[in-house]
Amino acid sequence: MQELQLSDWLPTTNKEVKIRGWDALDVILFSGDAYVDHPSFGPAVIGRILESYGLRVAVVPQPNVSDNLQDFVKLGAPKLFFAVTGGCMDPMISNYNANKKRRDKDAYTPNGDIGFRPDYATSVYSNILKEKWPNVPVLIGGIEASLRRVTHYDYWSNKLMPSILETSKADMLVYGMGEQPLREVVRLMQKGVPFSSINTIKQTAVLVKPDEKIPKNSNWEDVEIQSHEICLKDKKAYASNFKTIEQESNKLAARRIFQKIGDKTLMINPPYPTMTEDEIDASFELPYTRLPHPKYNKRGPIPAFEMIKFSINIHRGCFGGCSFCTISAHQGKFIASRSQESVLREVDKVANMPDFKGYLSDIGGPSANMYKMQGKVQSICDKCVAPSCISPVICSNLDTSHKPLTQLYQAVDSHPKIKKSFIGSGIRHDMLVPEFNKNADPKELDAYTEEVMTKHISGRLKVAPEHTSDPVLKLMRKPSFSYFHKFKERFDKINIKKGLKLQLIPYFISNHPACEAEDMANLAAETKDMGFQLEQVQGFTPTPMTVATVIYYSGYHPYTLKKVRTPISAKEKEEQHRFFFWYKDENKAWIKNTLNKLGRQDLLKVLLPEKDKWRKNKPKGDAKHTFDDAIPFNQRKNKAKFKSKNKKRRSR
To answer: What letter would DSSP give residue 139?
Structure first.
């Protein structure tokens, strides 16, 4: 690999700007993350995209907001605009756990150090910039801005908040993946169009002031949702907004959304069509160094980078539409897949990195097995408003062929420097079950499952049934747990056939809307009976822009406006969570008392039999699993451990 120079990274200081021979900058990007010049890090992607448009771009990573704010003025004012992002994760997820306790590590900071990212970072940075440079436009984007673009419930402050455009004082918001709207913003500004006049670009949102006219666009239909003020007074009205927001976010011909915020009007323009193969290939093949900026060399490794250093992202988007997940709200429901040739070119770059040992940590995406999947008849997709393509059943128009993915794996493994390529992203096991995926070829599904089990995992396969209760699963937009049983049967069959000793790692969530204590007791009993001992799980964490969060705050399902009960109190959440740990001595008396009160002695006999032969024969192998529904799949790696009963139960 060619030796890198400091000028190979986007500049972060005046010294680095001068190294490039620049006397001024066009765009300055502020980020809540350390600067890692890699296609898996959004701030780097945006910086490189802007650079590819011929702009002079600099990055100010993790600016200090506790001193004299020198970081916000040191590079001067850009000619076009400031761009602001809170980072690859919502800063509140980065800073706090599900119990609202401050985390002791930040994965996007060198050495995992905390204190370098403020709460609500996008708003904090933007407000400072507007104060320091009132005449320079500020454009916000990234997942924090994207998911907070309308009135939303903020779990950490426990209140409804207006669009982040209001709290940040920014001039424009780009939601979703930013390549397409940024291209148009830059094109118009380079033509001399004032930033204030750029307000009809797809996938952007602006606040229209009382003295300004609503821009017209004859190609768009409009829809108005309940105002922020009405939402503050009426939880049911707030819930009713989400159906419109979610459906319009996932339509190929969406309406423009309006919402009143005081005397201003929030205007959210429709999204762009899904990126084409050429477009997404171009984004991934920009001149990334694929490394953290040299300024961090003496500060320690950046955990998030170490996790994905030797991984390959093959697609964006997710058509699962899970009620607790934000992926489709940000990346979209439709899958944007890279070409096999583009993926292989990236594999070659990784394989030639000086410290590469021959092992790719992941070839995946938000869900590992959605590569190249799309509608068979596009015109049907054009009219669809369903938030999920696979719930409650798999759409008959969805092509779920795993053949392109199997072929991609085989092509990657044929590279002479690749010893093994792992699948670290979560796999949708339900799509591999013929009883659920009725339109697929069972032999093809088995071929993919066997390919993964024999060549692409190291002892464990991660899947996400999430719960065992059918009513809870229905609300989650997940299939019946019976299909997990079916998948486990196929998994065990391949295990025996190939003489493997692989473990299945199931993900589960407690405290989800509609979940009762009895549901958790059933979950504990059924998973125990299957041979699982779950040690680390995470309760449901309400994050903006999900059905489950709307229900958590309002008590109403946004699609039916019927009441749904949700565990709210810390006591109830803790008690539901304790059922995961039925095997701990400190929980046994409580479980016995609780199940007796519920009249579920049948479950008590399963969980705490008088002579627990399972406990006696339990192997000493340790395995844990942590799950955070707001964290994208490629950031959940290496967080799962698992215990099995014994060899007999694993192979039955």
So the answer is: E
Lowest model confidence (mean pLDDT) among 10-24, 218-232, 269-283, 612-626 = 612-626
* Residue 343: count of CB within 10 angstroms of its CB: 22
Question: At 149, which CATH number?
Answer: 3.40.50
The CA angle 334-340-346, to the nearest 5 degrees, is 105
Please, which pLDDT band fits residue 648 given cuts at 50, 70 and 90? very low
Residue 52 burial by CB count (10 A; 0-12/13-18/19+): exposed, middle or buried?
middle
- Are 609 and 582 a contacting pair, CB within 8 Å? no
- Give the per-residue pLDDT at 98: 87
Q: Which residues are annotated as a binding site?
A: 318, 322, 325
344 and 197, same structural domain? no
Give dist(CA 187, CA 193) in Å, integer.
9
User: Same structural domain for residues 286 and 205?
Assistant: no
Q: What is the pLDDT of residue 538?
A: 86
Residue 456 bridge partners (DSSP): none
Is residue 256 included in any domain, yes or no?
Answer: no
Percent of the chain residues past pLDDT 90, beyond the cut: 88
pTM: 0.91
How far is residue 506 from each of residues 20, 80, 369, 605, 640, measured CA to CA in Å? Answer: 50, 48, 16, 23, 9
Q: What is the CATH number of the domain that holds 469?
A: 3.80.30.20
Q: How far apart are CA 536 and CA 88, in angstroms?
A: 24
Q: Identify the domain boundary among 191, 210, 229.
A: 210
Domain annotation covers residue 309: yes
Mean pLDDT (whole number) for 191-196:
94
Instruction: Provide the token pair at 356.
Output: 């590469």
With a cut of 80, say whether residue 93 has pLDDT above it. yes
Q: Annotated binding site for [4Fe-4S] cluster: which residue ranges?
A: 318, 322, 325
Mean pLDDT of 154-167: 97
- Residue 2's pLDDT band (boundaries 50, 70, 90)? low
CB atoms closer than 10 angstroms to residue 192? 6
Average pLDDT, rounded, for the chain: 92
Q: Which residues contact 391 (CB under 8 A, 6 or more apart)?
A: 320, 321, 477, 478, 479
Q: Which two tokens stand for residue 511?
A: 């405290």
Instruction: Judge if 381 and 512 occupy the same domain.
Output: yes
Would you say residue 46 has pLDDT above 90?
yes
Give the C-alpha separation, 602 to 529, whole Å.
Answer: 13
360, pLDDT greater than 70: yes
CA distance linking residue 474 with residue 556, whole number of Å: 15
For residues 338 and 333, what is the distance between their CA atoms, to the nearest angstrom? 16
Q: What is the mean pLDDT of residues 95-112?
A: 95
Q: Are 64 and 195 found together in one domain?
A: yes
Q: Are 626 and 538 within 8 A, CB to CB?
A: yes
CA 265, CA 249: separation in Å to the nearest integer? Answer: 19
What is the number of domains present in the chain? 2
Q: Which residues constitute the domain of residue 103?
A: 6-210
The vertex-79 CA angle with 73 and 83, nearest 5°, equals 65
| Residue matched to tokens 């323009």 | 269
In Å, what is the CA distance from 164 to each residue of 93, 223, 350, 551? 16, 20, 38, 21
Same domain, 428 and 520: yes
Q: Which residues contact 627 (CB under 8 A, 6 or more apart)?
A: 464, 507, 508, 509, 537, 538, 636, 639
- Identify the pLDDT of residue 617: 39
> Does pLDDT of 534 surpass 90?
no
Q: Is the pLDDT assigned to residue 461 strictly greater than 70?
A: yes
